[in-house]
Design a protein that fits this description.
heterotrimer; A alpha/beta; B alpha/beta; C alpha+beta; B: alpha/beta; Aspartate Aminotransferase, domain 2; Aspartate Aminotransferase, domain 1; 7-stranded mixed β-sheet; 4-stranded antiparallel β-sheet; 13 strands; C: alpha+beta; OB fold (Dihydrolipoamide Acetyltransferase, E2P); 3-stranded antiparallel β-sheet; about 20% helix; globular
């Protein structure tokens, strides 16, 4: 049998050893009424060659973004993944291991995570980073819950410029009943409106707010004014939670420097394949003062009985397996291998490579935006600082343009309305319906961008 | 191994300081740089509105060979399923078929962007529907969401659906009942949903105490949350009475699917009366644990809960094409995009490789192997519950503790010297000095015997030379750690000097 | 192991009463059961505490326990040295390992506490 090394003969011997005539006898505790009593109705078993050809057949039905000239982003990015990353992740000692609860035989995973935590602290400008969360959206929601624990309050304010799927996730977590969320906005200018009717200042009133949550860059690529956000949040004795793109932190000011108390984000840009949106990982970093409130696992450095350097899971009393219903989160499995991949990625590009990759993305995005504006088919809804992603208004029917460009080998960004369509990002509905979000990574070339601009102009 | 076992305390080789990747390489070292810029450079200050980093982040600068060596060294200090038996109770550390790794990395999957037009991702959606259908058949619960990223995330998702279901019926409920054998994620999840935990004790056979359950059930109970087979490795014989009692009080019944590996093709949670189940694909369906993740925790539910599932959910249209749709009363999203898709590919491949009969054989062998090991160890260690077990069983090291002062922790550490990963220890909480052993179906008879021999040898060592066991391990990359020191003075990141 | 000048409660705290002020810590038995103490979370001076309610938490590497006061009152002193040296609770539970000083609202609430002898009998059952 596939993956069962016990032979039929051995099976008989094992049954004799436990004094049973038949395997069925082992299931005597299963009441008759709940026994299935028929074979599972599933497709028949496939040998490895047939399996590969079947599953490859499914894969071949897809037209992956990685195979075309893609400008799709909005939370998932087509960056180059250095070859070494997957070679490391394919080491069975890493990928077939469990959570490092036995540190004596898990030093590889533990040191790898410690180094990952160190790199995330360096990027975000924070003191403590955990071993990873499921993704950026859940890290964002857990940051809200952590802020409530720290401040002993139960309402958070979230900017309307945050990715709709993250806002949706936050709302789902809040709906579970332990905290409330006020969504500020929609914000007309593509960035947080601090002072308007639906602005953040007003939402923060009441003295009951645990945190202001925002994302910079936000869902349309614009950079938020972290200084003002920090001032406003802290005036309300609330924490500032900043979601950000870790790859851009090669050149972008660290949120920790700009007043953030918790920094989270989606780690996919760091060496993780797009993989239809998962698995990648969420990162989560905070100040040392709040360390005991952080969700998830932490690895610390210590020594063994002989005085050798060693690493171990630490501050575990925060976690579900010890504190149970009083735990800081119910998270158990995280996305450790994906986080390890991010650490390998950061080593591979290095300090300079990360900065020049980020710089290349930003320069190319600015180039593409100019090129698209020069076609006359696009207009700029705002003139706001952005990094490697931006939104433009298209003067025609978006779906048709998108489809035509795909036929020509281009994935023409992400139409804003295709991201959780019911969630308004800007108050002007007709503007919202005309917006396309373009992301540019270091993989895109000038030739591709020129060709894209020319083709789209010719439609 | 004999030589390794002959190590005496203090005789372990000196291991010395550990080098971090930060302490490797040189400022001029490079590995992978992006191509030269082919567009005009930008003034970062102007482009980013002044939000420019002044100090570069302290991340390493190394060459590729240094990366390769560093991680090869780290890997050499790790123990995985490929390294040897990993009988970690309730974790189902079975072999991870290699072909699945290749399939998840096919460009047609790994290169997909989540916002590609639906027409370009038909194969991915078909695969997800195929997996969801298989999980529905195995669980006996017809509606499935693949979105949750892990088991605990699945628990949370299901309880959120329960909450929404009760709310729609104008029903405010406050408590969730869990047995004293529950995983820590269960009460933690209950708290995240704003419910209070009511713990119900186990009876002398290791099942839920029915009288105790009935005495705490009431109209304020939202759910009863069970693991079946439970964490003692026992199938609850009263399962139908339990779920009926829950339903009688208007509560819903939740099954933690951590132990699904025992019952595939034999008994289905849906037929037991459960309303929801999460499946740990990284346990039962052989996707690797990755040193802590990524996993996937799909949730299967009865029809009346289907409208509440998080979405979007892939489905097959009448014309044979595939699409994504949000259930009518959906609780919303529990994460971004559609789930840990790459993990779903591996689980799908596993199901297709085994088929229905293969899955049943998996469970049968897992249960047989556990019972065989239990039989081999029952005279040496105390058995917490002397019953036929499912895919795992719980021993107690209380005899060794009482007679020789050797604790379960010591036995676990000594197993490392014998070349095995230890079982789950000190869980479930109701068994003193617990050792929870789950061999899985992928261990050979020879390997099961070797493990039993090692456990018996350690019991002998505990008698003859308890200090030897208490000082273990001796042969591992590091020995027992100063965990108190780690917690008192947390060192959680590398800091540059000064 | 259980000084006779102290009073004890069933949650394994000890109390030293000096007029209307009570000094509170945990017993030798409690620190031994916990193992190596790694963190003590205490209230702030000026906080009020209530009998039967947790006023703080004490952690070892793999367990966490709540700390209870046997009487209502206001916290007038906190042993902040435990922040940097939580192991003091193991080393000197009745001396340097004390936790808080409470100005009692009603000293008669302490009447039901156990004597050293009674407490010792209690823990010998639990051990």
């Amino acid at each position: 049998m596939r993956h069962i090394p016990v032979t039929c003969e051995q099976r008989e011997a094992m049954l004799r050893a436990i004094d049973r005539a038949d395997i069925v006898d082992l299931f005597a505790d299963v009441p008759e009424k709940v026994r299935l009593g028929r074979p599972l109705d599933l497709p028949g078993a496939l040998g490895e060659m047939d399996l590969v050809s079947h599953v490859r057949g499914l894969a071949d039905t897809n037209e992956p973004a990685s195979g075309v000239v893609s400008f799709a982003g909005a939370g998932c990015y087509d960056h180059y993944v250095p070859s070494i990353v997957d070679h490391v992740l394919r080491k069975p000692e890493f990928f077939t291991a469990y959570t490092p609860y036995q540190p004596e035989v898990s030093q590889g995973t533990l040191q790898g995570i410690y180094e990952y935590q160190s790199m995330m602290c360096a990027l975000t400008g924070m003191d403590v980073a955990n071993a990873s969360m499921y993704d950026g959206a859940t890290a964002f929601a857990e940051a809200a819950m952590m802020a409530c624990r720290v401040t002993r309050r139960r309402r958070v304010v979230c900017a309307g410029t945050v990715h709709p799927e993250w806002r949706n996730t936050l709302a789902t977590y809040a709906d579970a009943g332990t905290f409330d969320v006020t969504f500020a906005g929609p914000h007309a200018g593509g960035v947080i409106d601090f002072d308007g009717e639906e602005g953040v200042r007003r939402a923060l009133e009441g003295g009951d707010v645990a945190a202001l949550l925002l994302s910079s860059p936000n869902v349309v690529g614009n950079l938020e004014d972290l200084g003002s956000a920090s001032t406003l949040a802290h005036e309300a004795d609330a924490l500032l939670v900043v979601a950000t793109n870790p790859l851009l932190l090669g050149v972008l000011e660290a949120p920790g420097e700009a007043g953030a108390d918790i920094v989270v984000g989606e780690g996919q840009p760091l060496g993780n394949m797009m993989s239809f949106g998962g698995p990648a990982f969420g990162f989560f970093a905070c100040r040392e003062a709040h360390m005991r409130h952080i969700p998830g696992r932490l690895v610390g450095r210590t020594v063994d009985v002989d005085g050798n350097d060693a690493f171990v899971l630490t501050l575990s009393t925060r976690e579900q397996h010890i504190r149970r219903e009083k735990a800081t989160s119910n998270i158990c499995s995280n996305q450790a291998l994906c986080a390890l991949g991010a650490a390998v990625y950061l080593c591979a590009v290095g300090r300079e490579g990360l900065a020049s990759t980020a710089r290349a993305c930003i320069a190319k995005a600015h180039y593409l935006r100019e090129r698209l504006l020069s076609t006359g088919r696009f207009s700029a809804p705002w003139d706001t600082p952005f990094a490697h992603e931006f939104a433009l208004a298209y003067d025609g029917e978006i779906a048709g343009m998108h489809a035509s460009m795909l036929e020509r080998g281009f994935l023409a960004g992400v139409p804003l309305t295709s991201i959780e369509p019911a969630t308004p990002i800007v108050p002007d509905e007709s503007l919202a319906e005309s917006l396309v979000v373009f992301a540019v990574t270091e993989k895109r070339t000038r030739v591709e961008m020129d060709a894209f601009a020319e083709e789209v102009a010719s439609l | 191994m004999t030589e390794k076992l002959s190590h005496t305390p203090g005789a372990a080789p000196s291991r010395g300081p550990r080098r971090l990747i930060f302490e490797t390489g040189a400022p001029e070292s490079r590995c992978v740089m992006p191509p030269a810029l082919d567009v005009p450079d930008v003034d970062l200050g102007a482009a980013l509105g002044g939000a420019v980093r002044v100090e570069p982040p302290v991340i390493p600068h190394v060459t590729e060979v240094e990366i390769a060596r560093h991680y090869a060294h780290l890997a050499s200090m790790n123990f995985g399923v490929d390294s040897g038996s990993y009988p970690l109770g309730s974790c189902t550390m079975k072999y991870n078929p290699r072909v699945n790794e290749d399939l998840a990395r096919l460009e047609g999957f790994a290169g997909l962007h989540p916002y590609q037009p639906e027409a370009t991702v038909q194969g991915a959606l078909e695969l997800m529907v195929g997996l969801a259908d298989a999980l529905a058949e195995v669980s006996g619960l017809p509606a499935v969401t693949l979105q949750p990223a892990a088991g605990a995330h699945g628990e949370l998702t299901a309880l959120m659906c329960f909450r929404a279901y009760h709310r729609d019926r104008g029903d405010v409920r406050k408590r969730v009942i869990i047995p004293d054998t529950a995983h820590g994620t269960n009460p933690a999840t209950v708290a995240m949903c704003g419910y209070e935990v009511t713990t119900v004790p186990s009876d002398e056979r290791g099942g839920v105490d029915l009288d105790a359950l009935n005495s705490v059930l009431g109209t304020d109970v939202a759910a009863v949350m069970l693991t079946n087979p439970n964490t003692l490795g026992l199938f609850d014989e009263n399962i139908l009475e339990i779920t009926a009692a829950a339903h009688g009080a208007g509560a819903l019944a939740y099954c933690d699917g951590a132990n699904l590996n025992a019952i595939m093709g034999i008994s289905r949670p849906g037929d037991m009366g459960f309303d929801a189940l999460h499946v740990n694909l990284h346990k039962t369906f052989s996707t690797p644990h990755g040193g802590g993740g990524p996993g996937a925790g799909p949730v299967c539910v009865v029809s009346r809960l289907a409208p509440y599932l998080p979405g979007p959910i892939p489905h097959r249209r009448t014309d044979g094409s595939y699409g994504l749709a949000l259930p009518e009363r959906s609780i919303g999203r529990v994460r971004s995009f559609y789930g840990n898709f790459g993990v779903l590919v591996k689980a799908y491949a596993y199901v297709r490789a085994l088929g229905g009969e293969g899955l049943r054989e998996v469970s049968e062998q897992a249960v047989l192997s556990a019972n065989y090991l239990k039989e081999r160890l029952r005279d040496t260690y105390e058995l917490a519950y002397d019953r036929t077990c499912m895919h795992e069983f719980v021993l107690s090291g209380s005899r060794q503790k009482r007679e020789h002062g050797v604790r379960t922790l010591d036995i676990a550490k000594r197993l490392l010297d014998h070349g095995f990963h230890p079982p789950t220890v000190y869980f479930p909480l109701i068994v003193e000095e617990a050792l929870m052993i789950e061999p899985t179906e992928t261990e050979s008879l020879e390997e099961l015997d070797r493990f039993a021999d090692a456990m018996i040898a350690i019991a002998e060592e505990a008698k003859r030379d308890p200090e030897l066991v208490k000082g273990a391990p001796y042969t591992t990359p590091v020995r027992r750690l100063d965990e108190a020191g780690a917690a008192r003075n947390p060192d959680l990141r590398y800091r540059t000097e000064g | 192991m259980y000084p006779s000048d102290l009073k004890y409660d069933k949650e394994h705290e000890w109390v030293r009463v000096e007029g209307d002020v009570a000094v509170i810590g945990i017993s030798h038995f409690a620190q031994h059961q916990l193992g190596e103490v790694v963190y003590v979370d205490l209230p702030s001076e000026g906080d009020t505490v209530s009998a039967g309610e947790a006023f703080g938490e004490i952690e070892s590497v793999k367990s966490v326990s709540e700390l209870y006061t046997p009487a209502d009152g206001e916290v007038i002193k906190v042993n902040s040295a435990l922040t940097d040296a939580p192991e003091t609770v193991n080393e000197d539970p009745y001396g340097e390992g004390w936790m808080i000083e409470v100005k009692l609202a009603d000293p008669s609430q302490l009447d039901g506490l156990l004597s050293a002898e009674e407490y010792e009998a209690l823990v010998s059952e639990e051990a």
